[in-house]
Amino acid sequence: MSNGYYQLPNGRVASIDQDCPFPAIEDALKEPNGLIAIGGDLSLTRLIAAYRQGIFPWFSDDEPILWWTPDPRMVLFPDELKVSDSLKKTIKKQRFEIRFNSAFRAVITACSSTLRAGQHGTWITQDIIDAYCNLHDAGYALSSEAWLDGKLVGGCYGVKIGHMFYGESMFTDVSDASKVAFVHLVQHLKSERVGMIDCQMKTAHLARFGAREISRLEFMQKLNFLCNNSAN
pLDDT digits over 111-137, tens only? Predict the structure, then answer.
């Protein structure tokens, strides 16, 4: 059981402590972002449990931990990846060296300092960085990196459980670097039989790669199969 509830203008949301489970997905606030709980911690056990239930943390330094499960959900099916002709040309030139998991902390730290339109500050706090590095050390989080002349210039990271991947963030210091890293990541995940990539919420950038929205119900049905019917 949760400790109680926070009453918000658009409904009430569960308050959880370190030991109690997440409420049922159906209890998320009836809004696109789907806030489902406040509190808890960023332990390895908590984060894995969250992702298995289609929940992820997203909050600022001055806020408690906020947990979300959007409806609809933006996803990319690896077979539906779209790559523009110009990006195909860039990839063919092999300008960037692509590596996986050689600099995970550097990637997530770079993502945390990337300025994004419409955002003030970052949700990738130091606590988030440390928590996801723990996920990486445990074999659940991975990074795709673009290197140029021996320098990390772009990349992305996310969480993999079974045949399900949850994309988190990306950064670029050189034009097309993060895009090239992302395409290689999708191809890598496809080779590992990952069936769906969670993109969380809709952006025009991800839509250009072929990502699309599906209902939370469909998302959860696919997620449960991909997480629970394959070994990590």
Answer: 998 765 444 446 899 999 999 999 999
**Section 39-66 average pLDDT:** 94
Q: What are phi and psi of 182, to 5 degrees?
A: -70, -45
Q: How many CB atoms lie within 10 A of CB 193?
A: 11
Pair type for strands 73-76 and 66-68: unpaired
Tokens found for residue 44? 């390895």
Could you tell me which residues come within 8 angstroms of residue 182 by beta carbon, excluding any fewer than 6 positions away? 144, 156, 170, 209
| Residues 15 and 117 grouped into a single domain | no
Which one is predicted more confidently, 123 or 201? 201
Rounded Cα distance, 71 and 35, in Å: 10
User: In this prediction, what percent of the chain has a pLDDT beyond 90?
Assistant: 79
> What is the rounded radius of gyration, in angstroms, for the C-alpha atoms of the chain?
18
Q: Quick one: 18 and 87 in the same domain?
A: no
Domain harbouring 128, CATH code = 3.40.630.70
* Mode of pairing for the β-strands spanning 164-172 and 196-200: parallel
pTM: 0.93
* Angstrom distance (rounded) from CA 33 to CA 31: 6
